Amino acid sequence: MFVGARGVILDDQNRLLLIQRSDNLHWAMPAGAMELGETMEQCAIRETFEETGLTATSLTPFSFHSAITFTNGYGHTYQQILMSFRIHTWTGELLRQTDESVDAGFFPLDALPGRRSMIIEETLADLESFEKTGRLVLK
């Protein structure tokens, strides 16, 4: 089982922050697995910092996925439990390269990079639903 969190940052121009992962070179939102004793919110803050250099100072959960399965390159299938957070404010300078990423940047929603994580569109749809209804998206 994989339990983790994702941080979604849109800047004041409504551009989405994406990192280019060092392991597969796909563009993705900052995300990762929880560490022992950590809350999902703390996980989102830590993963965002580790992958971007930015420290989330205000965030809101907007979706909770518990029915996702993933099969890794070794053929092992895991159930994923993941909470997505909208990060409203942050401090720090964006690092384009970290231990987990080879590039990072803000992209207009209508011009996202080509080789990207499949979950980006679903996450953005969840955020849009949350912003319209005020209800946490559960899947």
UniProtKB/TrEMBL annotation:
Keywords: Hydrolase. GO terms for molecular function: hydrolase activity. This is NUDIX hydrolase. It comes from uncultured bacterium BAC AB649/1850. It comes from the Bacteria. Residues 1-132 form the Nudix hydrolase domain. Transmembrane segments: none annotated. Gene3D superfamilies: Nucleoside Triphosphate Pyrophosphohydrolase. Its cofactor is Mg(2+). Belongs to the Nudix hydrolase family. InterPro entries: Nudix_hydrolase, NUDIX_hydrolase-like_dom_sf, NUDIX_hydrolase_CS, NUDIX_hydrolase_dom.
